[in-house]
Specification:
alpha/beta; Lyase, Ornithine Decarboxylase, Chain A, domain 1; TIM Barrel; 2 domains; 9-stranded mixed β-sheet; 21 strands
Amino acid sequence: MLHTHVAGAIHADALAPSPQWLVRPDDANALDPALWPGSVARDEAGQVTVAGHGVTELAERFGTALYLVDEDAFRAQARAYAQAFAGWHVYYAGKAFLCKGLARWVDEEGLHLDVCSGGELAVALAAGFPADRIGFHGNNKSVEDLRLAIRSGVGRIIVDSLDEIERIEQLAEEHGTTVGVLVRVTTGVEAHTHEYIATAHEDQKFGFSILGGHALMALVRCHTSPWLHLTGVHSHIGSQIFETAAFEVAANRTMRVMAQFRDATGTALSELNLGGGFGIAYTPADRPQPLAVLAEGFRQIVDQVSRAFEFTDLTLAIEPGRALIGPASLALYTVGTVKVVELDGGAQRVYVSVDGGLSDNIRPALYAAEYSAVLANRASAEQTVLCRVVGVHCEGGDILVRDVFLPHDIQPGDLLAVPSALAYARSMASNYNYVLKAPVVAVTPDTVRPLLRRETLDDLLALDQG
């Protein structure tokens, strides 16, 4: 039975202040290679470096909070996915993080790109990304969003409702063109992830349910439209997923409805996008499958299910989500205060406050997402203590790292580094308390360059009409 603490859920673990997987490290200065880009190391002085650049210098140059992305690591990850899923379309998730510079990396590595709003589409187009390699998602795309997509020649619009089908038809007629579409279906698969990022169970806003024939009806509706070119089906079961078993169920149910469509119309659909949302390592407890194992699992699933339903020559696609940008990134913060708080039963908790928070990474507050952190500007020989890394905002739930062991001598002015902290962080950032959004800086051994500059007070005030 779960007993709720009177002060709220964030205090319910006061007498058991760490998750079961968290253990005191043997070496507080060690960097777990499963959590960090390969270029991250410590120099002779104990400072963390990224692609050879010390974090102290980067912090002095760009300030903190600061997102860092290792460009070479991102490109290597993109190439690895393209090779592992050779012959498939691999879509980078713009919602994880998108800017013009990164869109160009995605293009140069030959990947596709999915966007979820007119704004994301505008960024991709401004970067010169080929529109025919863009998939446009969203459960409530506006007329203006759809008009931009059609005018730009977006390759696939993933339709999500009958209302949207009618809007696309009207706009396609207005522009005198046919529009390529996929129908998003809801497979009813319960992905083993947080409820808010599980997207294939029935009781949620995305897609056409296979139950009750809604998905089949939508497919036929698109097929019979003179303004729509229906190529196939899209399925997505969630994010931060570590296993392929749920995808096998989704593939079976998706291809079954594709077979029903074939039987009803005499037309075989040519494209299947199985989504993705592959998990990454935020903490030592996360165990993502090796990419080769993941890809082989997908191929076996698709081969088996395709044979069962007699599909040949399908164009296949996946959307790895955070798995491309997350492992190539980290965030950097400056410690402002260190406070020891007495808990019930004589226990203590050390609160380490940094110059960021839920405005630059809302995932811990929104999903109870767990992260790791290390002291980054120096090494320490001190024993570690259990800490909670918190932000600057006027919210008790403004927690960045719920539980982490840090050296006992952690002090104001120190730098903390948090791995995999760009995915779904800067893209979900806010100006809560009018805190300025952090910059994103790309590093290679030879270059350090901003992808997004830090916001300024002038940026905030420019929106205020007085």
